Automatic annotation (TrEMBL):
Enzyme Commission code: 2.7.1.23
Catalytic function, reaction form: NAD(+) + ATP = ADP + NADP(+) + H(+)
Official protein name in the record: NAD kinase
UniProt-annotated location(s): Cytoplasm
Pfam family, one: NAD_kinase_C
Keywords assigned by UniProt, alphabetized: ATP-binding, Cytoplasm, Kinase, NAD, NADP, Nucleotide-binding, Transferase
HAMAP family from the UniProt entry: NAD_kinase
Molecular functions (GO terms): NAD+ kinase activity
C-alpha cells in the first residue's frame, strides 16, 4: 500500500451509509475499486459480504465501517478527527490484517445444472417444504453419516462461526485454526448428533436422499440454489481476502469475546 492509499468507498443504499459516503469522499476523494489500494465498504455485515463477492477477486485489502444493523466484520464508524486519532488514513495504516479463505461450493440440481459459488461465512442446506431433509454426508469420499434427518445442515468458516452456525448451537472457531464447523439444524435423527469440527481442507459432500419428495436448497452466504441433489464443498485453494481491523478490536479478539458473553 502506498503512503497515501487510494481508497474506493463503497456504500449500501441506507441513508446513513450514503451520508457517510458523501463526507468521506469529500475528505479523501474517490477511486474505482480496480485502481484502489484499499476498499472501504460502508454498511453492515450483509453489505460487507456483497462487497467481498463482488470485488474479492481483485485481491485488495478491505477496511469496512459499520453503518448498518450488524457489523461483526466491520470497524466502528467515526467522523474524521486527527486530533483524537480517528483520522481514517491513520486507522487504515495501523489496522491489523485478517486473512480469510472462503469455502467453494459446487451444487448439482435436479435439472442437471451445476452452480459454483464462494462463501466467506457459511454454506447452509435447508429443507424447502414442511418435510425434513434426508441427507448423506461424505468426508473426502468416505460416508460418515448414512442419513441425517433434519431441517438442514451448515458448514461454517471461522469468520462465520459466530453467525448462523452459532445460532444453530454450533461451536465458535478460533481464527487461523485451520478448521470448519459442521453443524446440524434441528436434527431429528441421529438425535444426539451435534456435528463435527473438521480440518479446513476436508472435502464435504452432501447427497439429498429423497430430492423429489423432500426438496432441499443450498445457500452460500446470500446466493441460494434450489432443488439440489448433491453439494460438494471445500476450502478455496486459490482465493483469499484480507480484512483490516482496528488493533484494539480485531477479528480474533471479537471471536474470542463472543465466547465470554454472559
Amino acid at each position: 500500500m502506498t503512503a497515501t492509499p487510494r481508497i474506493a468507498f463503497i456504500a449500501s443504499q441506507a441513508g446513513e451509509a450514503q451520508r457517510a459516503l458523501s463526507v468521506l469522499t469529500g475528505l479523501h476523494g474517490q477511486c474505482d475499486p480496480e485502481s484502489a489500494d484499499v476498499l472501504v465498504p460502508l454498511g453492515g455485515d450483509g453489505f460487507m459480504l456483497q462487497t467481498l463477492h463482488r470485488y474479492g477477486q481483485l485481491g485488495k485489502p478491505v477496511y469496512g465501517m459499520k453503518l448498518g444493523t450488524v457489523g461483526f466484520l466491520m470497524n466502528h464508524y467515526r467522523q474524521d478527527d486527527p486530533a483524537s486519532g480517528s483520522d481514517l488514513l491513520v486507522r487504515i495504516a495501523a489496522a491489523e490484517p485478517a486473512v480469510l479463505r472462503p469455502l467453494e461450493m459446487r451444487a448439482e440440481t435436479e435439472s442437471g445444472a451445476t452452480i459454483i459459488s464462494l462463501a466467506y461465512n457459511e454454506v447452509a442446506l435447508l429443507r424447502q417444504t414442511r418435510q425434513a431433509a434426508h441427507l448423506q454426508i461424505d468426508l473426502n469420499g468416505v460416508t460418515r453419516l448414512e442419513e441425517l434427518v433434519a431441517d438442514g445442515v451448515i458448514l461454517s468458516t471461522a469468520a462465520g462461526s459466530t453467525a448462523y452456525n452459532f445460532s444453530a448451537h454450533g461451536p465458535i472457531l478460533p481464527l487461523g485454526a485451520g478448521v470448519v464447523a459442521l453443524t446440524p439444524i434441528a436434527p431429528f435423527r441421529p438425535r444426539r448428533w451435534r456435528g463435527a469440527i473438521l480440518r479446513a481442507e476436508t472435502e464435504v459432500r452432501f447427497r439429498v436422499l429423497d430430492p423429489y419428495k423432500r426438496p432441499v436448497s443450498v445457500t452460500a452466504d446470500s446466493h441460494e440454489v434450489r432443488d439440489v441433489v448433491e453439494v460438494t464443498i471445500h476450502e478455496s485453494r486459490e482465493r483469499t481476502v484480507t480484512l483490516l481491523f482496528d488493533a484494539e478490536h480485531n477479528l480474533e479478539e471479537r471471536i474470542l469475546s463472543e465466547q465470554f458473553v454472559v
